[in-house]
Amino acid sequence: MVTRAYTVAFEGIEARRVEVQCAFSPGMPSFSIVGLPDKAVSEARERVRAALNAMAIALPARKITINMSPADLPKEGSHFDLPIALAVLAALEIIPSEEVANTLALGELSLDGSLVPVIGARPAAMAAAEDDRDLICPQACGAEAAWVGAAKVLAARTLPAVIQHFTGQSPLEPADPGEVSTNPTGRDLLEVKGQERAKRALEIAAAGRHHLMMVGSPGAGKSMLAARLPSILPPLSPSEALETSMIQSLAGHLDDGGISRTRPFREPHHTASMAAIVGGGRGAKPGEISLAHHGVLFMDEFPEFNRTVLETLRQPIETGEVVVARANAHVRYPCRFMLVAAANPCKCGYLSDANRACNRAPGCGADYMGRISGPLMDRFDLRLEVPPVEFTDLDMPATGDSSATVAGRVARARALQDARFEGREALRVNADAEGAMLEEIASPDTEGRDFLTRVADRFGLTARGYHRVLRVARTIADLEGAPDVRKPHLAEAASYRLAFSQPN
Hints:
By secondary structure, this protein is α/β, with parallel strands linked by helices. The protein is 38% helix and 18% strand. The protein has 21 helices and 20 strands. A five-stranded parallel β-sheet has the order 13-16-19-11-20. Strands 1-2-4-3 form a four-stranded mixed β-sheet. Strand 8, helix 6 and strand 9 (153-156) form a beta-alpha-beta unit. The mean pLDDT is 89.
């Protein structure tokens, strides 16, 4: 007789169902696992054997074969321990095979039979809901998986507790979802002295999820400004929070099974590798651009990043997803993030400071900023020169609006975009609009179109640049509550777009 248990294998954020089959047959006593397992899965037989021995359950002196179907799908990770144990226990007729076949299980076994938490509980719960099955997982994963309300999640501390559930001796109670947190940063825009134009650019970027490039000498406040961006971003919507947490679950970044409504803010170091930024490595794990999904990816010292890494950002910025292709894996991750880059104007950083000018100017600046290719620079909606701040300015009183005030304006602009793009799954903010939709929502009047024509002729605005100016202008109009895009909106949008451009 063949008994069956069910679990999942991960391909990106997708959890594919895997059928774990167990059969006893005559022959030399052995315990083999087939179906393209990796080393961690192959070692499951020793963990399962020890856990069963700890409960005084002896395996029969027969040939035990575990097959994981589909056999051509790579199986990676220690979460296959529990479904293998359940299939063996069903074959031993200790637990009813029909009940096991109606559940989906994942979890790692200790040698004493306790269950160890594993990554991917939330995607597994989604797969269980689609198959109309209950999910059985370790206790530490229950709060995380329970957020998927469509699936009944049963969390157990030990394998004996799972057995008692199936035999009816002590049924497991459904797990409760973890806490919702907002994680306030405690950083306020009022703490930034001066830099009013930079604050305005941050507000526009936050309202429409536009990519922002800041260039300025060391100490001008670029990193300080970027660190306060989360304080003005609206909280994640329930659907966005679920998407983000699915990626964090696969990366093992969820704490206490909770779900955060705060948008991700990732700031990788400039020495980070391609796999760390884009994704890859063993198992093709998500990288920083996917961990920043629906949030901010802040890349300080932008020209110092590896040129290959920078060029790889070009396609994800446009499409909102990245495909990680490896010899044994081909997975797709979402990555709709806001890219905020900061750079010094030259290698020494003081190209624009008359008191400390580099003796290699202006070639030093051209060489340094030349590390950023033209096509990549063209993808920044907002380009900003951040002037240095004099130490005497630090004694001046705070100016501008607080983060709470700015966040209110950003929230109202986002609400207008939510209503505008309602029913369009691929469109959520102005930065996503393109083609006919962009023409519909951001078509300028005659005066504005004439203005853009003059700008394009004088500064050589590309087709991509033209569309990005329209998107930013639409966001500026939303911040004002204006129904149409007018010349003042286009003028402000173009001023940020042409910050580093030279007239023809």
